[in-house]
Amino acid sequence: MIKNKAMVIAKNLKETILTELNTQQLVRIPASEEEFFAVAEELPFKIEYHQNEIVTMGLASYWHEKITATFIGLLFQLFNLQKEDFDILGSNSGVQIPKFEGGYYMPDVMVVKGNPAFKEKSRAIIINPYIIVEVLSPATKAFDLSEKLSEYKLMSSLQQVIYINPEKVSVSTFIRSENPNTWINQDFYSLEDALSVANSSISLADIYHKIKFEE
């Protein structure tokens, strides 16, 4: 009976989300943590959970996904040269913000250093990310750079957050300093630039390889 009720709730939430995405770029719907996990399994795109709301923009653009795939490939090349153990994950793995009960985000790319630590009773929600990468979208840019960033910084394992704009050459990186509460921000706007990642570097020319910008 309880399972059937959860299925009905998930179905109703799914229909509400899909309907609202027809008229809105960013959808925010009040929901419980249980409802979030139930409907997450029913949708063909990622959703996130922020302060008792489901947040989603629906399907990502072609260029968003191309940059995401390119950056994952660049990270594999970079970490193959490292002696330490790193795992690279895509957006089907989530993170939980430790100081905000029920806060779950789905970064486009995540790097875990050493053994992954999971949310209790989960093998999909990570609580010890080392690097988080977000490829920005017009609908979620403000949300990503404000609300999510401030909460990402609360994760003690996290050492770097990278934001990539798929609409123009623009990459921002936030690196935790020796003072754990201080982050160093750098912004890059030229294909000749390179950003530091785990004691190595990745060029913007490689990140934006074969990316076509709308005029």
Automatic annotation (TrEMBL):
- Tell me which UniProt keywords the record has, alphabetically: Endonuclease, Hydrolase, Nuclease
Q: Which SUPFAM superfamilies match?
A: Restriction endonuclease-like
Putative restriction endonuclease domain boundaries: 34-197
Lineage top rank: taxon: Bacteria
Please name the Pfam families in this protein's record: Uma2
**A GO molecular function for this record?**
endonuclease activity
Q: What's the name of the protein?
A: Uma2 family endonuclease
User: From which source organism is this entry?
Assistant: Arcicella rosea
- Give the organism's phylogenetic lineage: Bacteria, Pseudomonadati, Bacteroidota, Cytophagia, Cytophagales
